[in-house]
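Hello K.,

You asked for the raw outputs rather than the summary table, so here they are, unedited. I folded two proteins back to back in the same session to keep the settings identical. This is the first:
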Amino acid sequence: MRNRSFIALLAILVVLPSFAEIAGAQPDHDAAALGAKLSNPVSDVWALFTEFDVFFSDGDVNDGDPPAGGRMVFQPVLPFPLYGSEEKRWNLITRPIIPILFSQPVPTGFDQFDHEAGLADIQLPMLVAPPTGNWIVGAGPTWLLPTSTHDAFGRQQWGVGPTAVLGYMTKKMTVGVFPQYYFGFADRGDRNDDVPRDASYLNMLYFLIFNLPDAWQVGMNPTITYDHQASSGNKWNVPIGLLAAKTTKIGGLPIKFQLGFEYSVVSQDDFGQRAQIKLNVIPVIPALVRKPLLGGD
């Protein structure tokens, strides 16, 4: 069972040679523009965001080395045109977040863990993004779907709440925040009564990305979490990080590769994530919907 902890690490090691080879690719101004757009959560680029993580958790229940885990996060980015055209277009940005756990350490006693695999809860933010020039602006509802296959992987509760994006873009950088807050409103049929009811928690992505020559980028994009129902000392996880990214074309297909490391300067006392290595592979796909749903093109 513990061997599954390193499945995602193996995937990273397999892809890393390709990532290194990309460093020698010729400059591509179209790729650079796409890379910058992909750093904007409400851009009009359709893409298949895929992330492979190896993460390490630790806390009071653990006395040895932090147990490792692995997961994949699949997040298709689907910006539907709503109204208007070109720089005056309104978009509906949908970004379903589908976490697939290869190996999640679940405490079963002091310094004892099971490593479980399965699907976590799916999140579905839906943002309306108006045309705002260099400003990054969007707001709407976000939904929590109780799809978890293990009690430790989710809330066993339907949820909904507000989400928003606020930021700013220049030719040299992109900066902003993307919070999502969830409130539980209905239990799943097989809910475990040991899991706290009335979910109330925050996920907040914050990002600062610098654009470099030859379609390279450096920066950070960690996600802060807060759980209002957790006990004192277990509510917050606050990571900081560093990433490097390169956007290129392979066989004519634009793809962004991104490799990063994060460390939580604040984490849960009992047991929480302390560090993670992230590899993102983000192919750009043709827009599946081109005409505005409400006209105006």
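The second followed immediately with the same parameters:
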Amino acid sequence: MIFTSNPPLSLYIHLPWCERKCPYCDFNSHTADNFDEQRYIKSLIEDLQQDLPLIWGRQISSIFIGGGTPSLFSAEAIQQLLSDLRALLNFNSGIEITMEANPGSADVSRFKGYRDAGVNRLSIGIQSFDDSSLQAIGRIHNGSQSIAAFNKARQAGFDNINLDLMYALPGQSLQQQMADINRAFDCQPEHISLYQLTIEPNTLFHSKLPGNLPDDDLSWDMQQQAQQALSTAGYEQYEISAYAQQNRQSRHNLNYWSFGDYLGIGAGAHGKITLPAEGRVIRRTRIRHPQSYMQHQGIHRISEQRELLAQDLVFEFMLNALRLVEGFDKSLFSQHCGLSTRLLDSAIHQAVELKLLVNSDGHLKPTSHGLQFHNDLQALFLDVDISQKLSIQPEILF
């Protein structure tokens, strides 16, 4: 693999505790029983330090503090965390720092403390404004608390806020779902993430399926009407589940979808780093359980490290980049994977023939059909033939 430059670099920080585990959630989260935030912050910084040799000299363009429920952490703990990070990392001058928060743990003074610490983007897990829907998915807040949480974030000075919404919830009607969308519009957030409820393995909902789930036709109607309403309200869809006002796209998530690099620290965190001098890309995964994560030291916090092979790079790049509504230039594949774009030609041809993809002079863009049947589009790149095509010269890389 031949790399001409480093991809952009982000940092993901996982804070794994929640007040209660939601029955649909398959993230690495744990009930908050007297967790030691200072010990965990110290472990995060030690974890980062052993990864620093991998990214010497590179700037960090964005940070995302996810969970779990990061807003369970005090403002003082987040201040300490970001202060320590500034001492170790080279922050981009316009760095985006996002933190997730739940309405049940919203407080004006705490939000203001996060803002003063350097967090400049907040992502609030509303999911729904409807009390019956929230109860059906096991959330601990209600609709009034959702609106109050948003208002508290504004009072604290946040001018870049994402609201997470879900649809196709148990017992949810089309009218209820659109009422959620309209309540979100009343708040006027800069960004809205809209996800369909999916039943994931290793969740309570998977072992005990909730009743009265909307069928496929109703779920499709919900998606279509919501997308139309979002567009009319000035929210441009730029990724399958992401809608933003002008110039308010999530830079951190765009880096993921463009197959950029990211360090991942914290219990269960994943990272992907390009090593151009070695001609390889590696993934690292941390120990999942927070107590075990804090007990281990240095490299022993890493539960898995693997090198991405050419076939992995093809599929993982397309898995992410094909989520972008406006598509991407094919040359981005070579820049971020170090491989010839010729590897993609056969699968691209198939996708175009199936009307899942448009290829305009090397700019690849999913069609509306391709976005609707995204899994089918991705599958075309799962078994790309990489034989006899890896020994390429730098001058014909692109």
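The radius of gyration is 21 Å.

Happy to rerun anything if the numbers look odd on your end.

Regards,
P.
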